[in-house]
Amino acid sequence: MADATIRRSALAGLAVPLSAGSGAGITLLERHPLVMINLRGVADAAFCDAVRAACGAELPVAPNTSGTGPCGEILKLGPDEWLLVADAGAAWSEKMIIPGATLTDVSHARVAVRVKGAKTRDMLAKGCAIDLHPRQFPPGTCVQTAIAKINVILHQPQDADGFVLYAPRSFAGSFWHWLTGSAAEFGCHVIAPPGDGSMPRR
Amino acid sequence: MMLIHCPHCGARDVTEFTYGGAGAARPADPAAADDPQWADYVYMRDNPRGLHDELWQHSAGCRRWIAVRRNTLTHDVIATARPGELPPR
Ligand SMILES: [Zn+2]
Fold it and tell me: Which one of A57, A90, A106 terminates a domain?
């Protein structure tokens, strides 16, 4: 499992604090370090029961949805594929046994950035073809799409506090430049993750 | 812009997909197929004006291969399904 003590974000040195004064329409906040586990399996009744027992959360089976529980979030990626996301050190990252499932630790594969603020939808719409209107994209919606031609997972958490975007770590630099460039016209505020994104967390 | 209805993700922009060519049927009994039959399957493609059954991959989405029935004249997407599950014409 991912070891939080040696985690260095691919955004270290990029996602540095930035103040836009009082006029910030967009706030960017990196989520780091996270545990991300790819889950594969056939979503029959026994599998859903096993996931519920292991994660304390309902397995989302409808297209473009997500679930949330005490341990973290479950993002639906495909007909037989999900991504489990939790803060590093969460209970389910230590021991996870789900009968009938294939679990793969992909914690280092992506960077995650929370984007929030009054202009979030306007800003994301500049790079993505998904309809972000709240009627089409309510809290809990999760899609995979391309933003500025970078494959991303776009998730609106149940708490509706903005959107969380997951991008491949090898694209972290260009992804970050697209985010800050697109947010600039609205006033872009950047909050640093705990530590500076590279220091040991525990 | 062309929209394709992914059976797993719903209607998405064509830029999320990669074209995979005609969804030709493999020889029913691969072990018994001779060279001309394989050559026909691998290399020979119709170029119809009108309905065309083809494969696309939802490469920027769920990454699954899907079957698409498309009108090559109008670009209308008539039907989509999992591979092999398009309804008969
Ligand atoms: Zn799809």
Answer: A106
Interface residue B63 vs chain A (CB under 8 A)? yes
Q: Which residues surround ligand 1, an ion (CB under 5 A)?
A: B 6, 8-9, 58, 61-62
B73 belongs to a structural domain: yes
On whether any CB of chain A is under 8 Å from the CB of B13, the answer is: yes
**A66 and A165 fall within a common domain:** no
pLDDT at A28: 96
* Cβ pair A146:B16 closer than 8 A: yes
Q: For residue A127, what is the domain's CATH number?
A: 3.30.1360.120
Please determine, for residue A16, whether its predicted confidence score (pLDDT) is greater than 90.
no
pLDDT, position A202: 37
Q: What is the pLDDT of residue A20?
A: 75
Range of the domain at B20: 3-81
Task: Please give the Cα distance from A84 to A38 (Å, whole number).
Answer: 6
The answer on A164 and A99 residing in a single domain is no
User: Is A79's Cβ below 8 Å from some Cβ in B?
Assistant: yes
The b-or-e profile of A39-77 (16+ CB within 10 A means b, else e) is bebebeeebeebbeebbebebbeebbebbbbebbbbbbb
Burial class (CB in 10 A: 0-12, 13-18, 19+), B12: buried
Position B13 scores a pLDDT of: 95
ipTM for this model: 0.87
Q: Which of A81, A143, A146 sits opposite B15 (nearest CB)?
A: A146
> Can you give the residue range of the structural domain that contains A179?
11-33+108-193
Both tokens of A104, joined, read: 């793969």
pLDDT digit string, tens, across residues A72-89: 899 999 999 999 999 887
Mean pLDDT across A105-134:
95
Query: Are residues A73 and A121 part of one domain?
Result: no
